[in-house]
Design brief:
This protein has 226 residues and is an all-alpha fold. 93% of the residues lie in helices and 0% in strands. It is built from 5 helices and no strands. Helix 2 packs antiparallel against helix 3. It is rod-shaped, with a radius of gyration of 47 Å. The protein starts with a helix and ends with a helix. 13% of the residues are buried.
Length: 226
């Protein structure tokens, strides 16, 4: 999943769902009187917390990439169905508590307090199970955080390796550019030398032509004078 926050909300939602299931399916049928009312209140608070977590997950899914959003939305729909079932079961438990309170009280009196002791013992076991689930959830979160840290470390190492490779490529390119500059310098010196030679040859030719013309002129002059 792309969002770490979504995963954290999901872990907490699963933990809250287990607590609600335990209260509705296991604890409430064994509780009577004030203990039953207290359990209903705790279940109501847990359902409200589950609804809050659903809203948080919906917010995270809206900002997730499209490739992850579909999977998140599917999970949220399933979780909404669970919460709706919790609400229906809790409503039924409230009605049962209001309508069957007298029967529960009479049963408690006839049993001589045995059911109350069993309910108390069961409540302690349930709390131990809740604590164990909380520890398991915390362990899962730590494992998830370690996994994300290892993935981040691997990505960082990959980036460093890639940067090192790019640095070597840049250095090789710089050396090639320096070689090209050196070759251009040599070519420039050769061209300058050739240019000087051409200019020298031109001046030499002009001097030769001038000397030849002078000799020719002197020869013509001498012949005409005779």
């Amino acid at each position: 999943m792309s969002s770490e926050a979504f995963e954290n909300y999901e872990y907490e939602f699963e933990d809250v769902s287990k607590q609600i299931n335990r209260m509705l399916q296991t604890q409430l049928p064994n509780y009577t009187g004030e203990q039953r009312k207290s359990c209903i209140m705790q279940a109501q608070k847990s359902v409200e917390r589950a609804e809050d977590l659903l809203r948080d997950m919906e917010t995270e899914s809206r900002t997730a990439p499209p490739s992850y959003r579909t999977k998140m939305t599917t999970k949220i729909k399933g979780y909404k169905t669970d919460v709706q079932k919790f609400s229906r079961d809790l409503t039924a438990a409230k009605r049962s508590a209001r309508g069957g309170g007298g029967v529960n009280d009479r049963t408690e009196l006839l049993s001589g307090g045995g059911d109350s002791w069993e309910a108390h013992s069961y409540d302690q076991r349930s709390r131990l199970l809740d604590s164990e689930n909380t520890l398991n959830t915390t362990s899962q979160r730590i494992t998830n955080a370690q996994r994300i840290g290892e993935e981040s470390e691997a990505i960082g190492a990959g980036v460093i390796t890639e940067l090192g490779s790019q640095r070597e490529t840049i250095i090789r390119t710089a050396h090639k550019v320096q070689g090209v500059d050196a070759n251009l310098g040599k070519s420039k010196r050769i061209l300058n030398s050739m240019h000087r030679r051409v200019m020298t040859n031109q001046m030499t030719m002009m001097l030769i032509v001038f000397v030849l013309m002078a000799i020719l002129g002197l020869t013509v002059y001498l012949k005409l004078k005779k």
